[in-house]
Design a protein that fits this description.
The chain is built from three helices and six strands. The chain has 97 residues and is α+β, with helices and mostly antiparallel strands. The protein has one domain. The chain has a three-stranded antiparallel beta sheet. The chain is globular, with a radius of gyration of 13 Å.
Length: 97
């Protein structure tokens, strides 16, 4: 039996985002703050709008940036999720199973 994976989501009603080349920009509509997304974060953000598990985010990052290995992708995804959560933009972390 496969282990259930947590699904991470951001509140699309509370934020607006735009892709700008390989990067992106997120606007926190409640606080009128904006954040620049590097290429890796620009890959992850749309997945978080839909809801995605950590493994799905890691896999997507590896496909989009094959120059990084799985260990680095895992660390990058984990760090990004912490940063998004620290800005109170991560609103759902349910478990699929």
């Amino acid at each position: 039996m496969a282990q259930a994976e947590r699904t991470y989501r951001v509140d699309g009603a509370r934020s607006a985002w735009r892709q700008v080349g390989d990067e992106g920009v997120v606007l926190d509509l409640d606080r009128s703050l904006y954040f620049g997304l590097n290429r890796s974060a620009g890959v992850l953000w749309p997945l978080l709008l839909a809801g995605a598990g950590h493994g799905q985010l890691v896999d997507a990052l590896i496909v989009a940036t094959p120059e990084i290995d799985r260990t680095r992708a895992i660390g990058d995804v984990s760090s990004f999720l912490v940063a998004v959560d620290n800005e109170d933009l991560l609103v759902t972390a349910g478990v699929d199973g």
